[in-house]
Protein backbone atom coordinates (compact mmCIF):
# COMPACT_ATOMS: atom_id res chain seq x y z
CA UNK A 1 0.00 0.00 0.00
CA UNK A 2 1.29 3.49 -0.82
CA UNK A 3 1.83 5.86 2.11
CA UNK A 4 -0.95 8.44 2.53
CA UNK A 5 -1.89 11.38 4.69
CA UNK A 6 -4.91 11.00 6.96
CA UNK A 7 -7.05 13.77 8.33
CA UNK A 8 -10.45 14.25 9.86
CA UNK A 9 -12.93 16.24 7.83
CA UNK A 10 -14.02 19.48 9.42
CA UNK A 11 -17.61 20.59 9.21
CA UNK A 12 -17.33 23.05 6.37
CA UNK A 13 -21.00 23.88 6.08
CA UNK A 14 -21.93 23.91 2.44
CA UNK A 15 -18.48 23.19 1.08
CA UNK A 16 -17.38 19.80 -0.14
CA UNK A 17 -14.01 18.31 0.70
CA UNK A 18 -10.56 19.24 -0.58
CA UNK A 19 -10.19 18.13 -4.17
CA UNK A 20 -6.97 16.27 -3.43
CA UNK A 21 -8.61 14.11 -0.80
CA UNK A 22 -10.23 10.71 -1.10
CA UNK A 23 -13.16 10.30 1.25
CA UNK A 24 -12.96 7.59 3.92
CA UNK A 25 -16.20 6.53 5.60
CA UNK A 26 -16.68 2.85 6.50
CA UNK A 27 -13.65 1.91 4.44
CA UNK A 28 -14.86 -1.60 3.68
CA UNK A 29 -14.28 -1.21 -0.06
CA UNK A 30 -11.72 1.61 -0.13
CA UNK A 31 -9.22 0.03 2.30
CA UNK A 32 -9.52 -3.27 0.45
CA UNK A 33 -8.83 -1.62 -2.90
CA UNK A 34 -5.85 0.20 -1.40
CA UNK A 35 -4.43 -3.11 -0.20
CA UNK A 36 -4.87 -4.49 -3.70
CA UNK A 37 -3.10 -1.46 -5.19
CA UNK A 38 -6.17 -0.57 -7.25
CA UNK A 39 -6.51 2.77 -5.49
CA UNK A 40 -3.51 4.80 -4.30
CA UNK A 41 -4.86 7.97 -2.72
CA UNK A 42 -2.42 10.61 -1.48
CA UNK A 43 -4.77 11.79 1.25
CA UNK A 44 -7.69 10.22 3.07
CA UNK A 45 -10.32 12.54 4.52
CA UNK A 46 -12.29 10.75 7.24
CA UNK A 47 -15.88 12.02 7.19
CA UNK A 48 -17.24 9.88 10.02
CA UNK A 49 -16.85 12.84 12.37
CA UNK A 50 -19.26 14.97 10.31
CA UNK A 51 -22.88 15.26 11.52
CA UNK A 52 -24.22 12.98 8.78
CA UNK A 53 -25.31 10.06 10.95
CA UNK A 54 -29.06 10.63 11.07
CA UNK A 55 -32.36 9.27 9.78
CA UNK A 56 -34.97 12.04 9.63
CA UNK A 57 -38.65 11.51 9.01
CA UNK A 58 -39.87 13.97 6.39
CA UNK A 59 -43.35 15.48 6.18
CA UNK A 60 -45.52 13.20 4.07
CA UNK A 61 -43.88 9.97 5.14
CA UNK A 62 -40.52 10.10 3.37
CA UNK A 63 -37.11 9.73 4.93
CA UNK A 64 -33.84 11.64 4.75
CA UNK A 65 -30.90 9.35 5.42
CA UNK A 66 -27.51 10.79 6.35
CA UNK A 67 -24.50 9.71 4.30
CA UNK A 68 -22.67 8.10 7.22
CA UNK A 69 -25.56 6.06 8.62
CA UNK A 70 -24.28 2.51 8.91
CA UNK A 71 -26.00 -0.11 6.76
CA UNK A 72 -26.88 -2.16 9.86
CA UNK A 73 -28.54 0.80 11.59
CA UNK A 74 -30.49 1.70 8.48
CA UNK A 75 -31.73 -1.84 7.94
CA UNK A 76 -32.99 -1.99 11.52
CA UNK A 77 -34.56 1.46 11.60
CA UNK A 78 -38.26 1.10 12.47
CA UNK A 79 -39.44 3.56 9.82
CA UNK A 80 -37.42 1.80 7.13
CA UNK A 81 -38.77 -1.61 8.09
CA UNK A 82 -42.33 -0.37 8.26
CA UNK A 83 -42.52 1.90 5.21
CA UNK A 84 -39.81 0.58 2.93
CA UNK A 85 -39.38 -3.17 3.54
CA UNK A 86 -37.59 -3.43 0.19
CA UNK A 87 -34.80 -1.20 1.48
CA UNK A 88 -34.34 -3.04 4.76
CA UNK A 89 -34.37 -6.38 2.94
CA UNK A 90 -31.84 -5.21 0.36
CA UNK A 91 -29.45 -4.00 3.05
CA UNK A 92 -29.75 -7.27 4.96
CA UNK A 93 -29.16 -9.24 1.76
CA UNK A 94 -25.77 -7.57 1.34
CA UNK A 95 -22.39 -8.35 2.88
CA UNK A 96 -22.10 -9.66 6.46
CA UNK A 97 -23.07 -8.43 9.91
CA UNK A 98 -19.54 -7.14 10.50
CA UNK A 99 -19.36 -5.29 7.18
CA UNK A 100 -22.82 -3.76 7.58
CA UNK A 101 -21.68 -2.33 10.92
CA UNK A 102 -18.96 -0.39 9.09
CA UNK A 103 -20.42 0.36 5.67
CA UNK A 104 -22.28 3.63 5.17
CA UNK A 105 -25.10 4.86 2.96
CA UNK A 106 -22.88 7.09 0.84
CA UNK A 107 -20.10 4.56 0.60
CA UNK A 108 -22.47 1.81 -0.42
CA UNK A 109 -23.64 3.91 -3.39
CA UNK A 110 -20.08 4.72 -4.44
CA UNK A 111 -18.56 1.28 -3.94
CA UNK A 112 -16.64 -0.07 -6.90
CA UNK A 113 -17.33 -3.05 -9.09
CA UNK A 114 -16.07 -6.47 -7.99
CA UNK A 115 -15.13 -7.33 -11.58
CA UNK A 116 -12.08 -9.61 -11.17
CA UNK A 117 -10.08 -7.68 -13.78
CA UNK A 118 -10.74 -4.31 -12.15
CA UNK A 119 -9.49 -5.71 -8.84
CA UNK A 120 -6.31 -7.27 -10.29
CA UNK A 121 -3.63 -4.71 -11.11
CA UNK A 122 -1.71 -7.25 -13.19
CA UNK A 123 -4.56 -7.35 -15.73
CA UNK A 124 -5.71 -4.84 -18.32
CA UNK A 125 -8.89 -2.96 -17.42
CA UNK A 126 -10.44 0.01 -19.19
CA UNK A 127 -12.04 1.19 -15.98
CA UNK A 128 -8.83 1.11 -13.93
CA UNK A 129 -6.44 2.11 -16.74
CA UNK A 130 -8.32 3.61 -19.67
CA UNK A 131 -7.33 2.21 -23.04
CA UNK A 132 -5.74 -1.01 -21.81
CA UNK A 133 -8.62 -3.20 -22.90
CA UNK A 134 -11.21 -5.46 -21.31
CA UNK A 135 -10.27 -9.12 -20.91
CA UNK A 136 -13.65 -9.91 -19.36
CA UNK A 137 -15.49 -10.28 -22.65
CA UNK A 138 -13.44 -13.33 -23.55
CA UNK A 139 -12.67 -14.29 -19.98
CA UNK A 140 -14.32 -14.56 -16.58
CA UNK A 141 -17.57 -12.69 -17.10
CA UNK A 142 -19.95 -15.08 -15.38
CA UNK A 143 -21.02 -12.42 -12.91
CA UNK A 144 -20.80 -9.40 -15.19
CA UNK A 145 -23.37 -7.30 -16.99
CA UNK A 146 -26.02 -8.28 -19.53
CA UNK A 147 -27.68 -4.85 -19.69
CA UNK A 148 -26.24 -1.35 -20.17
CA UNK A 149 -22.66 -2.45 -20.81
CA UNK A 150 -20.36 -1.20 -23.57
CA UNK A 151 -17.61 -2.72 -25.71
CA UNK A 152 -15.15 -1.12 -23.28
CA UNK A 153 -16.62 -2.42 -20.01
CA UNK A 154 -19.11 -4.99 -18.76
CA UNK A 155 -18.68 -4.38 -15.02
CA UNK A 156 -21.68 -4.60 -12.70
CA UNK A 157 -22.57 -2.32 -9.81
CA UNK A 158 -22.38 -4.57 -6.74
CA UNK A 159 -24.79 -2.85 -4.35
CA UNK A 160 -28.06 -4.35 -3.15
CA UNK A 161 -29.10 -1.20 -1.30
CA UNK A 162 -28.84 0.93 -4.43
CA UNK A 163 -31.21 -1.38 -6.30
CA UNK A 164 -33.88 -0.82 -3.68
CA UNK A 165 -33.22 2.92 -3.66
CA UNK A 166 -33.60 3.00 -7.45
CA UNK A 167 -37.00 1.33 -7.20
CA UNK A 168 -37.97 3.81 -4.47
CA UNK A 169 -37.11 6.86 -6.64
CA UNK A 170 -34.55 7.94 -4.06
CA UNK A 171 -32.51 11.07 -4.63
CA UNK A 172 -28.95 11.84 -3.58
CA UNK A 173 -27.88 15.19 -2.12
CA UNK A 174 -24.25 16.21 -2.43
CA UNK A 175 -22.02 19.21 -1.86
CA UNK A 176 -19.80 19.87 -4.85
CA UNK A 177 -17.26 22.58 -5.60
CA UNK A 178 -19.98 24.05 -7.85
CA UNK A 179 -22.67 24.02 -5.19
CA UNK A 180 -25.33 21.68 -3.90
CA UNK A 181 -26.80 19.04 -6.20
CA UNK A 182 -29.83 16.79 -5.91
CA UNK A 183 -29.64 13.75 -8.20
CA UNK A 184 -31.62 10.66 -9.02
CA UNK A 185 -29.53 7.50 -9.04
CA UNK A 186 -29.45 7.47 -12.85
CA UNK A 187 -28.15 11.04 -12.72
CA UNK A 188 -25.46 10.10 -10.22
CA UNK A 189 -24.24 6.76 -11.61
CA UNK A 190 -23.17 6.66 -15.25
CA UNK A 191 -23.21 3.91 -17.83
CA UNK A 192 -19.71 3.03 -19.10
CA UNK A 193 -19.97 3.98 -22.76
CA UNK A 194 -16.54 4.95 -24.07
CA UNK A 195 -15.36 6.10 -20.63
CA UNK A 196 -15.85 3.38 -18.06
CA UNK A 197 -13.33 5.13 -15.79
CA UNK A 198 -15.96 7.81 -15.16
CA UNK A 199 -18.50 6.26 -12.81
CA UNK A 200 -20.34 9.21 -11.31
CA UNK A 201 -21.29 12.72 -12.34
CA UNK A 202 -19.84 14.18 -9.13
CA UNK A 203 -16.74 16.33 -9.67
CA UNK A 204 -13.64 15.89 -7.51
CA UNK A 205 -14.12 17.40 -4.09
CA UNK A 206 -17.77 16.38 -3.84
CA UNK A 207 -19.34 14.93 -0.73
CA UNK A 208 -22.59 12.98 -0.64
CA UNK A 209 -24.46 14.26 2.41
CA UNK A 210 -27.80 12.45 2.35
CA UNK A 211 -30.27 10.31 0.44
CA UNK A 212 -33.97 11.09 0.39
CA UNK A 213 -36.63 8.45 -0.08
CA UNK A 214 -40.12 9.75 -0.92
CA UNK A 215 -43.18 8.09 0.59
CA UNK A 216 -44.74 5.30 -1.43
CA UNK A 217 -48.26 5.71 -2.80
CA UNK A 218 -50.95 4.14 -0.62
CA UNK A 219 -51.39 0.40 -0.94
CA UNK A 220 -47.93 -0.34 -2.25
CA UNK A 221 -46.15 -3.51 -1.22
CA UNK A 222 -42.44 -3.89 -1.76
CA UNK A 223 -39.88 -6.66 -1.67
CA UNK A 224 -36.22 -7.34 -2.50
CA UNK A 225 -35.24 -10.77 -3.77
CA UNK A 226 -31.70 -11.89 -4.52
CA UNK A 227 -30.25 -15.00 -6.18
CA UNK A 228 -26.65 -15.92 -5.39
CA UNK A 229 -24.22 -18.82 -5.39
CA UNK A 230 -24.63 -19.50 -1.66
CA UNK A 231 -27.39 -18.83 0.82
CA UNK A 232 -25.75 -15.80 2.43
CA UNK A 233 -22.78 -13.46 2.14
CA UNK A 234 -22.34 -13.40 -1.63
CA UNK A 235 -22.93 -10.83 -4.35
CA UNK A 236 -26.05 -11.10 -6.45
CA UNK A 237 -26.12 -13.14 -9.63
CA UNK A 238 -29.41 -11.37 -10.23
CA UNK A 239 -31.72 -9.47 -7.91
CA UNK A 240 -34.93 -7.50 -8.11
CA UNK A 241 -36.47 -4.70 -6.07
CA UNK A 242 -40.18 -4.48 -6.71
CA UNK A 243 -42.90 -2.07 -5.60
CA UNK A 244 -46.46 -2.88 -6.62
CA UNK A 245 -50.02 -1.75 -5.86
CA UNK A 246 -53.18 -3.10 -7.42
CA UNK A 247 -55.99 -0.77 -8.46
CA UNK A 248 -59.67 -1.19 -7.59
CA UNK A 249 -60.13 -3.62 -10.48
CA UNK A 250 -57.27 -5.83 -9.40
CA UNK A 251 -55.06 -4.61 -12.21
CA UNK A 252 -51.57 -3.18 -11.78
CA UNK A 253 -52.03 0.38 -10.50
CA UNK A 254 -48.48 1.13 -9.44
CA UNK A 255 -45.31 -0.72 -10.31
CA UNK A 256 -41.62 -0.05 -10.04
CA UNK A 257 -38.94 -2.59 -10.83
CA UNK A 258 -35.18 -2.34 -10.47
CA UNK A 259 -32.70 -5.11 -11.26
CA UNK A 260 -29.34 -5.76 -9.57
CA UNK A 261 -26.32 -7.84 -10.56
CA UNK A 262 -26.95 -7.38 -14.26
CA UNK A 263 -25.87 -3.85 -15.18
CA UNK A 264 -23.27 -1.15 -14.49
CA UNK A 265 -25.80 0.59 -12.25
CA UNK A 266 -29.11 -0.44 -10.70
CA UNK A 267 -31.30 -1.12 -13.72
CA UNK A 268 -34.71 0.51 -13.66
CA UNK A 269 -37.00 -1.64 -15.81
CA UNK A 270 -38.97 1.22 -17.33
CA UNK A 271 -40.09 -0.71 -20.40
CA UNK A 272 -41.52 -3.48 -18.24
CA UNK A 273 -43.23 -0.96 -15.99
CA UNK A 274 -44.96 0.68 -18.96
CA UNK A 275 -46.25 -2.69 -20.11
CA UNK A 276 -47.53 -3.54 -16.64
CA UNK A 277 -49.45 -0.39 -15.74
CA UNK A 278 -53.13 -1.19 -16.14
CA UNK A 279 -52.45 -4.79 -17.06
CA UNK A 280 -54.13 -7.67 -15.28
CA UNK A 281 -52.10 -9.25 -12.50
CA UNK A 282 -51.43 -12.46 -14.38
CA UNK A 283 -48.40 -14.59 -15.09
CA UNK A 284 -48.89 -13.95 -18.81
CA UNK A 285 -48.76 -10.18 -18.33
CA UNK A 286 -45.74 -10.44 -16.06
CA UNK A 287 -43.88 -12.61 -18.56
CA UNK A 288 -44.68 -10.31 -21.47
CA UNK A 289 -43.48 -7.27 -19.54
CA UNK A 290 -40.21 -8.82 -18.42
CA UNK A 291 -39.60 -10.12 -21.94
CA UNK A 292 -39.96 -6.57 -23.22
CA UNK A 293 -37.35 -5.31 -20.78
CA UNK A 294 -34.89 -8.11 -21.36
CA UNK A 295 -35.10 -7.79 -25.14
CA UNK A 296 -32.29 -5.27 -24.68
CA UNK A 297 -30.04 -7.81 -22.96
CA UNK A 298 -26.72 -8.63 -24.59
CA UNK A 299 -25.48 -11.67 -22.70
CA UNK A 300 -22.10 -13.31 -23.20
CA UNK A 301 -21.53 -17.07 -23.24
CA UNK A 302 -20.91 -17.49 -19.51
CA UNK A 303 -23.53 -15.08 -18.18
CA UNK A 304 -26.42 -15.85 -20.52
CA UNK A 305 -28.02 -17.75 -17.65
CA UNK A 306 -28.72 -14.42 -15.96
CA UNK A 307 -31.38 -13.51 -18.52
CA UNK A 308 -33.59 -16.53 -17.89
CA UNK A 309 -32.83 -16.48 -14.16
CA UNK A 310 -33.89 -12.83 -13.90
CA UNK A 311 -36.96 -13.52 -15.99
CA UNK A 312 -38.13 -16.26 -13.63
CA UNK A 313 -37.25 -14.23 -10.54
CA UNK A 314 -39.22 -11.16 -11.59
CA UNK A 315 -42.28 -13.15 -12.61
CA UNK A 316 -42.21 -15.00 -9.29
CA UNK A 317 -41.82 -11.82 -7.24
CA UNK A 318 -44.64 -10.06 -9.09
CA UNK A 319 -46.93 -13.03 -8.52
CA UNK A 320 -46.12 -13.03 -4.82
CA UNK A 321 -46.58 -9.29 -4.39
CA UNK A 322 -49.93 -9.34 -6.16
CA UNK A 323 -51.10 -12.50 -4.43
CA UNK A 324 -51.57 -14.27 -7.74
CA UNK A 325 -48.79 -16.83 -7.56
CA UNK A 326 -49.09 -20.42 -6.51
CA UNK A 327 -48.11 -20.36 -2.86
CA UNK A 328 -47.89 -16.57 -2.99
CA UNK A 329 -47.90 -14.18 -0.09
CA UNK B 1 -5.16 14.95 13.68
CA UNK B 2 -2.10 15.62 11.61
CA UNK B 3 0.17 13.20 9.95
CA UNK B 4 3.89 13.59 9.63
CA UNK B 5 6.34 12.35 7.07
CA UNK B 6 7.95 13.92 4.07
CA UNK B 7 6.00 16.14 1.78
CA UNK B 8 4.60 14.54 -1.32
CA UNK B 9 2.89 15.81 -4.40
CA UNK B 10 -0.78 15.27 -3.72
CA UNK B 11 -1.64 14.24 -7.22
CA UNK B 12 -2.02 10.54 -6.53
CA UNK B 13 0.14 9.79 -9.54
CA UNK B 14 1.30 6.30 -10.28
CA UNK B 15 4.95 7.28 -9.97
CA UNK B 16 6.78 4.77 -7.76
CA UNK B 17 7.76 7.91 -5.86
CA UNK B 18 8.58 8.29 -2.23
CA UNK B 19 7.51 5.34 -0.14
CA UNK B 20 8.63 6.86 3.17
CA UNK B 21 6.00 5.94 5.75
CA UNK B 22 3.67 8.65 7.00
CA UNK B 23 2.86 8.37 10.67
CA UNK B 24 0.26 9.73 13.03
CA UNK B 25 -0.36 9.65 16.77
CA UNK B 26 -3.31 7.60 17.94
CA UNK B 27 -4.74 6.64 21.32
CA UNK B 28 -6.34 3.21 21.35
CA UNK B 29 -8.61 1.97 24.12
CA UNK B 30 -8.27 -1.79 24.01
CA UNK B 31 -9.76 -4.16 26.58
CA UNK B 32 -9.85 -1.47 29.29
CA UNK B 33 -6.26 -0.42 28.63
CA UNK B 34 -5.13 2.81 27.00
CA UNK B 35 -2.31 2.82 24.46
CA UNK B 36 -0.69 5.93 23.01
CA UNK B 37 1.04 4.96 19.82
CA UNK B 38 2.50 6.46 16.72
CA UNK B 39 1.33 4.38 13.80
CA UNK B 40 1.93 4.23 10.07
CA UNK B 41 -1.30 5.56 8.57
CA UNK B 42 -1.47 2.37 6.51
CA UNK B 43 -1.69 0.15 9.60
CA UNK B 44 -4.93 -1.67 10.09
CA UNK B 45 -6.38 -2.11 13.54
CA UNK B 46 -5.69 -5.84 13.16
CA UNK B 47 -1.99 -5.32 12.51
CA UNK B 48 -1.62 -2.90 15.42
CA UNK B 49 -3.36 -5.30 17.79
CA UNK B 50 -1.16 -8.18 16.74
CA UNK B 51 2.19 -6.54 16.01
CA UNK B 52 2.27 -3.61 18.42
CA UNK B 53 0.08 -4.68 21.34
CA UNK B 54 0.89 -8.40 21.22
CA UNK B 55 -2.80 -9.28 21.19
CA UNK B 56 -2.51 -12.16 18.76
CA UNK B 57 -5.91 -13.68 19.46
CA UNK B 58 -7.42 -11.76 16.56
CA UNK B 59 -6.39 -13.66 13.45
CA UNK B 60 -5.44 -12.62 9.95
CA UNK B 61 -7.21 -14.96 7.56
CA UNK B 62 -7.93 -13.32 4.23
CA UNK B 63 -7.04 -9.70 5.16
CA UNK B 64 -9.85 -8.58 2.81
CA UNK B 65 -12.97 -8.71 4.96
CA UNK B 66 -14.13 -12.00 3.54
CA UNK B 67 -13.46 -14.53 6.32
CA UNK B 68 -14.24 -12.85 9.65
CA UNK B 69 -11.22 -14.27 11.52
CA UNK B 70 -10.19 -10.73 12.51
CA UNK B 71 -13.56 -9.81 14.04
CA UNK B 72 -13.38 -7.56 17.11
CA UNK B 73 -15.91 -5.34 18.86
CA UNK B 74 -15.73 -1.57 18.27
CA UNK B 75 -17.88 0.18 20.85
CA UNK B 76 -19.62 -3.16 21.20
CA UNK B 77 -20.30 -3.62 17.49
CA UNK B 78 -18.61 -6.45 15.61
CA UNK B 79 -16.38 -5.32 12.75
CA UNK B 80 -13.63 -6.71 10.52
CA UNK B 81 -10.47 -5.24 12.08
CA UNK B 82 -8.52 -5.92 8.86
CA UNK B 83 -10.55 -3.20 7.11
CA UNK B 84 -10.36 -0.59 9.87
CA UNK B 85 -7.42 1.81 9.75
CA UNK B 86 -5.90 2.22 13.19
CA UNK B 87 -5.74 6.01 12.80
CA UNK B 88 -9.49 6.05 12.19
CA UNK B 89 -10.41 4.21 15.41
CA UNK B 90 -9.94 7.37 17.48
CA UNK B 91 -11.77 7.23 20.82
CA UNK B 92 -13.77 4.07 20.28
CA UNK B 93 -13.44 1.11 22.64
CA UNK B 94 -11.88 -1.99 21.12
CA UNK B 95 -12.67 -5.39 22.62
CA UNK B 96 -10.73 -8.41 21.42
CA UNK B 97 -11.03 -12.07 22.33
CA UNK B 98 -8.49 -11.45 25.12
CA UNK B 99 -10.83 -8.81 26.57
CA UNK B 100 -13.86 -11.10 26.60
CA UNK B 101 -12.26 -13.57 28.98
CA UNK B 102 -9.22 -15.68 29.70
CA UNK B 103 -8.46 -19.19 30.96
CA UNK B 104 -9.42 -18.26 34.51
CA UNK B 105 -12.49 -16.24 33.63
CA UNK B 106 -14.09 -17.63 30.51
CA UNK B 107 -16.80 -15.63 28.79
CA UNK B 108 -20.01 -17.67 28.49
CA UNK B 109 -19.48 -17.81 24.74
CA UNK B 110 -15.95 -19.14 25.14
CA UNK B 111 -17.22 -21.77 27.57
CA UNK B 112 -19.99 -22.77 25.19
CA UNK B 113 -17.54 -23.23 22.30
CA UNK B 114 -15.47 -25.52 24.54
CA UNK B 115 -18.41 -27.49 25.84
CA UNK B 116 -20.08 -27.89 22.45
CA UNK B 117 -16.83 -28.64 20.61
CA UNK B 118 -17.34 -25.59 18.41
CA UNK B 119 -13.98 -25.70 16.66
CA UNK B 120 -11.33 -27.95 15.22
CA UNK B 121 -8.09 -26.13 14.34
CA UNK B 122 -9.20 -23.04 16.25
CA UNK B 123 -7.93 -20.42 13.82
CA UNK B 124 -11.33 -18.87 13.10
CA UNK B 125 -12.53 -19.30 16.70
CA UNK B 126 -11.62 -15.90 18.21
CA UNK B 127 -13.40 -14.19 15.34
CA UNK B 128 -16.36 -16.55 15.62
CA UNK B 129 -16.69 -15.82 19.34
CA UNK B 130 -16.35 -12.03 19.03
CA UNK B 131 -18.82 -12.08 16.16
CA UNK B 132 -21.27 -14.22 18.14
CA UNK B 133 -21.12 -11.87 21.12
CA UNK B 134 -21.80 -8.85 18.90
CA UNK B 135 -24.52 -10.74 17.07
CA UNK B 136 -26.42 -11.64 20.25
CA UNK B 137 -26.47 -7.96 21.18
CA UNK B 138 -27.85 -7.05 17.74
CA UNK B 139 -30.62 -9.61 18.04
CA UNK B 140 -31.42 -8.49 21.59
CA UNK B 141 -31.94 -4.98 20.29
CA UNK B 142 -34.40 -6.25 17.71
CA UNK B 143 -32.22 -5.90 14.65
CA UNK B 144 -33.65 -8.13 11.92
CA UNK B 145 -31.68 -10.45 9.67
CA UNK B 146 -32.36 -11.54 6.10
CA UNK B 147 -34.34 -14.53 7.39
CA UNK B 148 -36.25 -12.82 10.21
CA UNK B 149 -39.36 -11.94 8.25
CA UNK B 150 -39.39 -15.32 6.51
CA UNK B 151 -40.39 -16.86 9.83
CA UNK B 152 -43.43 -14.64 10.20
CA UNK B 153 -46.58 -14.67 8.09
CA UNK B 154 -45.96 -11.31 6.46
CA UNK B 155 -43.11 -12.14 4.15
CA UNK B 156 -42.37 -9.07 2.11
CA UNK B 157 -45.50 -7.44 3.38
CA UNK B 158 -46.10 -4.01 4.82
CA UNK B 159 -46.03 -5.15 8.42
CA UNK B 160 -42.27 -5.18 8.77
CA UNK B 161 -41.50 -4.33 12.36
CA UNK B 162 -43.61 -5.34 15.30
CA UNK B 163 -45.65 -8.46 15.09
CA UNK B 164 -43.08 -10.35 17.12
CA UNK B 165 -44.58 -13.25 18.92
CA UNK B 166 -43.28 -11.91 22.22
CA UNK B 167 -40.94 -14.75 23.10
CA UNK B 168 -41.72 -14.81 26.79
CA UNK B 169 -40.96 -11.25 27.90
CA UNK B 170 -43.48 -8.45 27.94
CA UNK B 171 -41.45 -5.68 26.34
CA UNK B 172 -38.56 -7.76 25.04
CA UNK B 173 -37.76 -6.42 21.57
CA UNK B 174 -35.29 -9.24 21.03
CA UNK B 175 -35.55 -11.55 18.07
CA UNK B 176 -35.61 -15.26 18.98
CA UNK B 177 -32.62 -17.04 17.52
CA UNK B 178 -33.20 -20.43 15.99
CA UNK B 179 -30.50 -22.22 14.01
CA UNK B 180 -31.50 -20.55 10.73
CA UNK B 181 -31.20 -17.11 12.31
CA UNK B 182 -27.83 -17.92 13.84
CA UNK B 183 -26.46 -19.33 10.58
CA UNK B 184 -27.57 -16.27 8.60
CA UNK B 185 -26.26 -13.80 11.16
CA UNK B 186 -22.92 -15.62 11.39
CA UNK B 187 -22.38 -15.93 7.63
CA UNK B 188 -19.52 -13.42 7.78
CA UNK B 189 -17.39 -15.93 9.69
CA UNK B 190 -15.98 -18.80 7.65
CA UNK B 191 -14.67 -22.05 9.15
CA UNK B 192 -12.59 -24.17 6.83
CA UNK B 193 -12.69 -27.12 9.23
CA UNK B 194 -16.44 -27.09 8.80
CA UNK B 195 -17.24 -26.90 12.50
CA UNK B 196 -20.41 -24.97 11.72
CA UNK B 197 -22.84 -27.45 13.24
CA UNK B 198 -21.30 -27.19 16.69
CA UNK B 199 -20.61 -23.47 16.35
CA UNK B 200 -24.33 -22.90 15.86
CA UNK B 201 -25.09 -25.19 18.80
CA UNK B 202 -22.68 -23.28 21.05
CA UNK B 203 -24.22 -19.94 20.13
CA UNK B 204 -27.72 -21.36 20.51
CA UNK B 205 -26.82 -22.46 24.02
CA UNK B 206 -25.71 -18.96 25.03
CA UNK B 207 -28.65 -17.32 23.27
CA UNK B 208 -31.10 -19.46 25.22
CA UNK B 209 -29.35 -18.77 28.48
CA UNK B 210 -29.33 -15.04 27.86
CA UNK B 211 -32.99 -15.09 26.90
CA UNK B 212 -34.14 -16.74 30.09
CA UNK B 213 -34.88 -14.72 33.23
CA UNK B 214 -33.40 -17.48 35.37
CA UNK B 215 -30.35 -17.81 33.23
CA UNK B 216 -31.20 -21.40 32.48
CA UNK B 217 -32.25 -22.91 29.18
CA UNK B 218 -35.73 -22.31 27.88
CA UNK B 219 -37.43 -24.72 25.52
Molecular structure report:
The complex is a heterodimer of chains A (329) and B (219). Chain A is an alpha+beta fold and 329 residues long. Chain A contains eleven helices and twelve strands. Chain A has helices at 30-35, 71-76, 78-83, 85-93, 97-102, 105-110, 161-167, 185-188, 270-276, 283-294, 305-321, and strands at 5-8, 22-24, 43-46, 55-57, 63-66, 171-176, 179-184, 207-213, 221-227, 238-246, 252-260, 267-268. Chain A starts with a strand and ends in an 8-residue tail after the last helix. Chain B has helices at 45-52, 97-100, 108-115, 125-140, 148-151, 179-185, 196-211, and strands spanning 23-30, 33-40, 71-74, 77-80, 93-95. In chain B, strands 2-1-5-3-4 form a five-stranded mixed sheet. Chain B starts with 22 loop residues before the first strand and ends in an 8-residue tail after the last helix.
Strand content of chain A: 15-25%
Summarize the amount of helix of chain B as a percent range: 25-40%
List the total number of helices of chain B. Answer: 7
- Any idea what the CATH superfamily of the domain at 221-321 in chain A is called? CO dehydrogenase flavoprotein, C-terminal domain
Q: What's the structural blueprint in terms of helices and strands?
A:
The complex is a heterodimer of chains A (329) and B (219).
Chain A: E1 5-8, E2 22-24, H1 30-35, E3 43-46, E4 55-57, E5 63-66, H2 71-76, H3 78-83, H4 85-93, H5 97-102, H6 105-110, H7 161-167, E6 171-176, E7 179-184, H8 185-188, E8 207-213, E9 221-227, E10 238-246, E11 252-260, E12 267-268, H9 270-276, H10 283-294, H11 305-321
Helix pairs in contact in A: 4-7, 9-10, 10-11
Chain B: E1 23-30, E2 33-40, H1 45-52, E3 71-74, E4 77-80, E5 93-95, H2 97-100, H3 108-115, H4 125-140, H5 148-151, H6 179-185, H7 196-211
Parallel strand pairs in B: 1-5
Antiparallel strand pairs in B: 1-2, 3-4, 3-5
Please supply descriptive tags for the structure shown above:
heterodimer; A: 329 residues; alpha+beta; 5-stranded antiparallel β-sheet; 4-stranded antiparallel β-sheet; 11 helices; globular; B: 219 residues; Ubiquitin-like (UB roll)
Amino acid sequence: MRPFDYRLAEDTGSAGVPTDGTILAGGTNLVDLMKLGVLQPATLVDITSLPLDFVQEEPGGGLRIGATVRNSELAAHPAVRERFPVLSQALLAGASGQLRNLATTGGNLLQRTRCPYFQDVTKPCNKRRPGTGCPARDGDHRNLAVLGASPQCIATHPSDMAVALRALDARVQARTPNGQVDLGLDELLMLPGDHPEAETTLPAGSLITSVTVPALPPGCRSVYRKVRDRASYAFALVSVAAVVALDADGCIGQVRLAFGGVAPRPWRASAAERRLIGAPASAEAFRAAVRTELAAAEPLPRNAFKVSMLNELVVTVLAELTGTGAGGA
Amino acid sequence: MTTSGRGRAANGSDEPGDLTPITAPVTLHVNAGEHRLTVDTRSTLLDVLRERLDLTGSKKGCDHGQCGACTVLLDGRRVNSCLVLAVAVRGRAVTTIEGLGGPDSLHPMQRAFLEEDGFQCGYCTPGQICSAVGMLDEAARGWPSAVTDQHGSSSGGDEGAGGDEGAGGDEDPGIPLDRAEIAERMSGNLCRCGAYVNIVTAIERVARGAGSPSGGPVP
